[in-house]
Write a structure and sequence with these properties.
The complex is a heterodimer of chains A (about 290) and B (about 500).
Chain A (H helix, E strand, L loop, with lengths): L6 H5 L1 E8 L4 E7 L1 H6 L5 E5 L7 E4 L2 E3 L4 E7 L3 H9 L5 E2 L1 E6 L10 E7 L3 H13 L3 E8 L8 H7 L2 E6 L6 E2 L2 H11 L5 E5 L2 H11 L5 E5 L15 E4 L2 E4 H4 L2 E3 L5 H8 L3 H21 L1
Parallel strand pairs in A: 9-10, 9-13, 10-11, 11-12, 13-14
Antiparallel strand pairs in A: 1-2, 1-7, 2-6, 3-4, 3-8, 5-6, 14-17, 15-16
Chain B lengths: L21 H4 L12 H8 L9 H5 L6 H9 L3 H11 L3 H7 L6 H4 L11 H15 L13 E5 L3 H12 L3 E5 L8 H4 L8 H13 L3 E3 L10 H5 L6 E4 L19 E3 H10 L17 E5 L3 H12 L4 E5 L11 H9 L3 E3 L2 E8 L5 E14 L5 E5 L5 E4 L2 E4 L8 H5 L23 E3 L2 H4 L4 H19 L13 H4 L3 H12 L1
Parallel strand pairs in B: 1-2, 1-4, 2-3, 4-14, 5-13, 6-7, 6-13, 7-8
Antiparallel strand pairs in B: 9-10, 10-11, 10-12
Helix pairs in contact in B: 2-4, 2-8, 4-5, 5-8, 6-8, 9-18, 13-14
Classes of the chains: A alpha/beta (about 290), B alpha/beta (about 500).
The complex binds flavin-adenine dinucleotide, iron/sulfur cluster and FE2/S2 (inorganic) cluster.
């Protein structure tokens, strides 16, 4: 039984736009006026796609107060996100969307900021770049893709970045190499960078932090460990930062990149890997059976 | 009426409650204690002496008129018994199951001085279950007023506060962060102890009182407490967000896979239905041997859930002795019956790495009891040179919780040194019109205390809003005020079922 009283919540949260950026990456725009109003750069939501679904954290990729919507960019990796890729269509609904969660990013004190997004992190770095720009900072965007064909939101980034450095694995556009190459270029060109903000897979954030470490430039990373409630109640999201334990959902998600134990994060993200594989197999099997029936 | 009962004339033994045999139940999530049948309840009710001192009432945190409701059972007036209980306790089917009766009502029972005390909790549950089955609900005539009150958190404190304010005529909205209402009752306490259907039925009654539930709403982040009083137009707010934020010990090995809090284990299993994985998407992986640290209700629940999820061995590690274990006596007993191994006076010092990021075991040290500490319990002190290792693959922490920080981060509410919300004797916080109660004020406590706090806050809010104190408005002793005659009740009942 779902006890949500209002019709909206009983039905779920409406999907108003879907865009596919690649075979695996897709965008959902969801109607939730209150959330769009409350959201700040750096925050995330927890989503359940259907009643039996898992609660998964997704960093906000955008929010539009005028339209009353939030935007999520999702990479189909495990069972839940692959299923969402298959089932989430315009006019459909997500069972639960709750947030905005986490402490908003600290914006306003840095005058020159590098915003780095790689892989999954490209979309969520966008609100940070925009917020820093709106706060009057000089913003250098660094975004990384596998190739030119998979690139998205170049226009959005150009609109809020004073300088945009694109990196591709194959060199089909921008510089050839990982986003750390872009960060190095930015550091080489600017002596007065106050802060680097990096969002992406742990290995990429770790590399960015290592790049800025010699110059002791403040480096903020956004951690996205496995979560259940997102309200500080379960401790599943605990991360090690500076030798201490924090719950990323309420103490973060932003932490000092030079203090984060990324190896611990990487390991803890794999905690349920065997179960996730089983879930994926089970789901594929069901899909095959449904396919055979129809 | 028959002549006066004495301790010698009443049934001497406490009426047993049928239970699922331990060997069977440790493999299923069906309810362990099956409840009293009608004859059981009547026999047990006969054991009450109706003594004038009414010590049991003093033992109950919400002062239910215990002898009066028991007398109604002896008179076969079950609806009457229900009316008496619900005059003070909103959730008899729940409290009858989860209250620590041995330290509350039953601990004070006069019969208990020479025999086993009257099984007050079981009788309360019997009445509560009957009410659920029959669809009884006590709705006083509600005279709507213009006040809007918001409740943050749908656990027992929030539910109780909401009910009283709705009965007083306020327009009440409950905001809950999770996708379902119920708080710890839903995500923490497992189905074999408190079936979800019981909670949902109680919540159904609140909805009939006109209370609105807004799930998926994280107060503090989606909007702040200050906004609720301002632009959202609420005249008062009650905060019952619970304790949350589980503690770890800070010993080596805690970030290994296979180490989790009892809250995580229980939420995955109970709320997210990981026990039906992969039909439900949320996974939960347990090793063959599970060690749970702590001996409170949360620890007992985590251990018994682990057994039901297929763990072959479950160990309880507790640094004090059995006498100090904070769990309900019945849960401890049930855990023993189900084959949990208890290691009293034992404390972990290190979790051992299996070399593949998993746990292979735990190094522990034996403790002995020294001088009493602040809590009055004897402080456990380590015995030098008594360290030993034992094997396990999963380690579950159930050693208590700290205050949830979200509302403190997002409002001007004054917190105490430990991060809990500071309140005065009326449960008023530092912000005018905002009240708080339950675990977020006291730290982890009990369902009935949280409920009591919710009701107390409701009384304060009514005073703050200038409403009559409803305490007298819907006493069961004033049937006219209950409003629902037999015929109306039947109609209501039918429309509910339809
Ligand atoms: C596993 C377990 C077993 C227990 N067993 C027993 C027992 O047998 N007997 C007993 O008497 N007691 C027991 N307890 C203790 C008892 O459950 C608690 O004392 C009681 O539930 C506290 O009630 P509460 O209303 O303060 O908060 P909770 O029940 O914790 O409810 C708080 C609710 O608020 C929500 N919330 C939190 N923050 C926000 C926010 N910012 N916005 C919106 N919603 C929010 C939470 O999601 C939650 O649903 C047990 C506790 C646990 C964890
Ligand atoms: S509510 Fe709890 S303490 Fe009060 S009578 Fe019932 S079981 Fe006893
Ligand atoms: S996700 Fe549960 S505490 Fe952070």
């Amino acid at each position: 039984m779902t006890l949500a009283q209002d019709k909206v919540a009983a039905q779920g949260y409406e999907i108003v736009t879907r865009l596919d950026f690649s075979e695996t990456t897709f965008l959902l725009e969801i109607r939730h006026a209150a959330l769009a109003r409350a959201a700040r750069a750096g925050q995330f939501v927890i989503v359940m796609s259907h009643e039996e679904g898992e609660r998964i954290p997704l960093t906000l990729a955008d929010f539009d107060r005028g339209r009353g919507t939030i935007t999520l960019v999702i990479q189909a990796a495990g069972k839940t996100t692959r299923e969402m890729q298959e089932t989430c269509q315009v006019g459909g609904h997500l069972h639960a969307v709750v947030g905005p969660m986490g402490i908003p990013s600290h914006v306003g004190s840095s005058k020159k900021v590098v915003c780095v997004g790689g892989g999954l992190g490209v979309a969520p770095i966008y609100p940070q770049a925009r917020a820093h720009k709106e706060a009057g900072a000089y913003v250098i965007g660094v975004v990384g893709f596998r190739s030119k064909a998979l690139m998205f939101w170049e226009d959005k980034f150009r609109a809020c970045c004073d300088q945009l450095i694109v990196c591709t694995d194959d060199g089909s556009t921008g510089i050839k190499g990982l986003v750390t190459e872009g960060v190095k270029q930015a550091l080489a060109e600017h002596a007065d960078i106050d802060e680097v903000v990096a969002i992406g897979p742990p290995i990429m954030m770790k590399a960015c932090a290592a790049t800025t470490k010699p110059r002791a430039i403040k480096t903020t990373v956004s951690l996205n460990p496995i979560m259940v409630d997102g309200t500080g109640m379960c401790g599943g999201c605990r991360v090690r930062v500076g030798g201490k334990v924090f719950f990323a959902c309420v103490d973060g998600p932003d932490f000092d990149g030079h203090e984060v134990d990324f190896d611990d994060l990487t390991q803890r993200l794999r905690r349920y890997a065997p179960a996730e594989r089983r879930a994926l197999e089970h789901w594929r099997e069901n899909c095959r059976m449904r396919g055979a029936q129809s | 009426m028959a002549k006066k009962k004495t301790i010698r004339t009443i049934p001497q033994d406490r009426t047993p409650m049928r239970e699922q045999p331990a060997g069977e139940r440790r493999h299923n999530f069906g309810e362990v204690a099956c409840g009293y049948a009608l004859e059981d309840a009547q026999r047990e009710a006969e054991r009450c002496l109706f003594c004038p001192e009414r010590f049991c009432v003093q033992g109950c945190p919400v002062s239910i008129d215990i002898p009066d409701f028991i007398r109604k059972i002896t008179e076969k007036d079950f609806r009457g018994a229900y009316d008496i209980i619900t005059a003070t306790n909103l959730l008899p089917a729940i409290c009858g199951r989860v209250c620590p009766q041995e330290t509350q009502c039953e601990g004070q029972c006069t019969v208990g001085d020479s025999l086993e005390p009257v099984a007050i909790g079981r009788l309360e549950r019997f009445v509560g279950d009957l009410a659920v089955a029959e669809g009884w609900i006590n709705i006083p005539p509600i005279e709507a007023n213009a006040f809007r009150v918001a409740i943050v958190g749908s656990g027992p404190s929030g539910m109780a506060c909401a009910a009283d304010l709705a009965k007083a005529g306020c327009d009440v909205t409950v905001y809950e962060a999770f996708q379902e209402a119920g708080g710890v009752l839903k995500y923490g306490i497992p189905e074999f102890r408190l079936p979800n259907s019981v909670i949902d039925s109680e919540i159904g009654k609140l909805i009939k009182l006109g209370i609105k539930f807004e799930c998926n709403t994280l107060v503090g982040r989606l909007f702040t407490v200050e906004q609720m009083l301002g632009e959202m137009g609420f005249q008062a707010v009650f905060i019952g967000t619970g304790a949350g934020y589980p503690s770890f010990m800070g010993i080596p090995g805690e970030s290994l896979d296979g180490v989790l809090s009892a809250n995580e284990l229980l939420t995955r299993c109970n709320l997210m239905q990981a026990r039906d994985f992969p039909r439900h998407d949320t996974p939960l992986e347990l090793g063959r041997r599970v060690a749970v640290i702590g001996a409170g209700n949360t620890a007992m629940d985590a251990m018994r859930v682990s057994l039901r999820l297929g763990a072959e061995e479950v160990h309880c590690i507790y640094r004090r002795s059995k006498a100090e274990a904070p769990a309900r006596a019945e849960e401890l007993h049930h855990a023993e019956q189900e084959g949990v191994e208890f290691h009293w006076l034992t404390s972990p010092v290190e979790l051992l790495d299996d070399g593949k990021r998993g746990v292979r075991g735990m190094r522990c040290i034996r403790m002995e009891l020294g001088e009493p500490d602040d809590s009055g319990r004897r402080r456990p002190v380590p015995v030098k040179g008594s360290e030993f290792e034992f094997d396990c693959e999963t380690v579950v922490y159930a050693i208590g919780t700290n205050a949830n920080p979200i509302l403190g981060q997002t409002s001007k509410l004054r917190l105490n040194k430990r991060g809990y919300i500071e309140v005065d004797e009326d449960l008023a916080t530092s912000i005018m019109g905002v009240y708080a109660g339950g675990d977020i004020v006291t730290g982890a406590a009990t369902v009935i205390e949280a409920m009591g706090a919710g009701r107390k806050a409701a009384a304060s809010i009514k005073r703050y809003l200038g409403l009559r104190d409803s305490e007298r408005v819907y006493r069961a002793a004033e049937p006219a005020l209950f409003g629902i005659g037999e015929r109306n009740y039947v109609r209501l009942h039918q429309s509910v079922d339809a």
